[in-house]
């Protein structure tokens, strides 16, 4: 679910990216049961994916920053956010927070590697076929 949401953040405006990031895990939970509603993984993922879609939408689309730089910042913020959310949930369910957070962080490393490889390729391919995005500054200069 992370790949399409992060990619959407690079390709869509902020409002659309936020909507996709928030709705995707909740809709998936309703349709497939994964991620589960209880423990509140689906709700944590809704927060996580909303922010994960928002960061590239703002920094890449609006301000025209470097794709790889924005992706790395997005992934770093994601890991910190996931770690923080897991600590809160671990405390709520009386699970050792450090162990739970460390396990989640380490299990996400293969996915991070895939995102670093796949997301830029998909974004560049879509931009080359359908036209690249323009930042607000570039649109103002054209007017």
Provide an overview of this structure.
- The chain has 143 residues and is mainly alpha-helical.
- The protein has a single domain (2-132), classed as Arp2/3 complex 21 kDa subunit ARPC3, CATH 1.10.1760.20.
- 82% of the residues lie in helices and 0% in strands.
- The chain has helices at 2-11, 14-32, 41-62, 67-92, 97-107, 109-130, 136-142.
- The longest helix is centred in the middle third of the chain and has 26 residues, at 67-92.
- It is globular.
- It starts with a helix and ends with a helix.
Cα shape? globular
Terminal residue distance = 38 Å
Outline the biggest β-sheet.
Answer: none
What is the CATH architecture descriptor?
Answer: Orthogonal Bundle
CATH class: Mainly Alpha
Radius of gyration, in angstroms, nearest whole number: 16 Å
Can you count the beta strands? 0
Helices and strands, in order, run as HHHHHHH
Total helices: the number is 7
Estimate what percentage of residues fall within beta strands: under 5%
The average pLDDT is 86
Helix content: over 70%
Broad structural category = mainly alpha
- CATH fold naming: Arp2/3 complex 21 kDa subunit ARPC3
Oligomer: single chain
User: Low-confidence spans: pLDDT under 50, at least 5 residues?
Assistant: none
* Overall number of domains: 1
């Amino acid at each position: 679910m992370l790949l399409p949401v992060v990619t959407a953040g690079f390709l869509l405006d902020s409002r659309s990216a936020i909507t996709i990031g928030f709705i995707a895990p909740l809709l998936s939970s309703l349709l497939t049961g994964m991620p589960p509603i209880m423990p509140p993984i689906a709700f944590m993922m809704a927060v996580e994916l909303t922010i994960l879609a928002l960061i590239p939408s703002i920094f890449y689309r609006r301000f025209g920053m470097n794709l790889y730089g924005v992706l790395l910042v997005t992934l770093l913020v994601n890991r910190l956010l996931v770690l923080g959310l897991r600590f809160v949930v671990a405390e709520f369910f009386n699970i050792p927070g450090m162990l739970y957070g460390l396990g989640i962080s380490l299990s996400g490393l293969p996915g991070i590697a895939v995102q670093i490889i796949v997301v830029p390729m998909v974004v560049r391919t879509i931009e080359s076929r359908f036209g690249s995005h323009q930042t607000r500054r570039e649109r103002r200069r054209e007017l």
